[in-house]
Design goal:
With 108 residues, the chain is α+β, with helices and mostly antiparallel strands. Helices cover 35% and strands 43% of the residues.
């Protein structure tokens, strides 16, 4: 499955549109990561725990979006956008991936 932020794929033309597909992940950050991030916030530096949680959520959202596109018969997802939101009291993270599911045909 080709997944791209661009509106087309080089060497191919879009031969069919299946609509917008989404992948959503809402994840909580545990207390230990919160404590570590609090220290990083106070003393400065990067929060490895939060970064790992963010990367995992993004990967899961993209995988879910790909699965939904594949279930429709798509070869690719174009125009992909990823959004991040903090929910609740700041202890929940929502990652949403969206794009247009399409089939592709090689250019002649």
């Amino acid at each position: 499955m080709i997944v791209t932020t661009t509106p087309q794929v080089e060497g191919y033309r879009v031969s069919g549109y299946y609509g917008i597909v989404f992948g959503e992940v809402i994840t909580g950050v545990n207390v230990l990561k919160d404590i570590g991030a609090g220290f990083r916030n106070f003393f400065g530096g990067r929060s490895q725990g939060y970064e790992e949680e963010l990367m995992a959520a993004r990967t899961q959202a993209l995988q879910e979006m790909e699965q939904r596109a594949g279930a429709l018969g798509a070869h690719a997802v174009i125009g992909v956008d990823i959004d991040y939101e903090v929910l609740g009291a700041g202890d929940m993270l929502m990652v949403t991936a969206s794009g247009t599911a399409v089939t592709l045909a090689p250019l002649s």
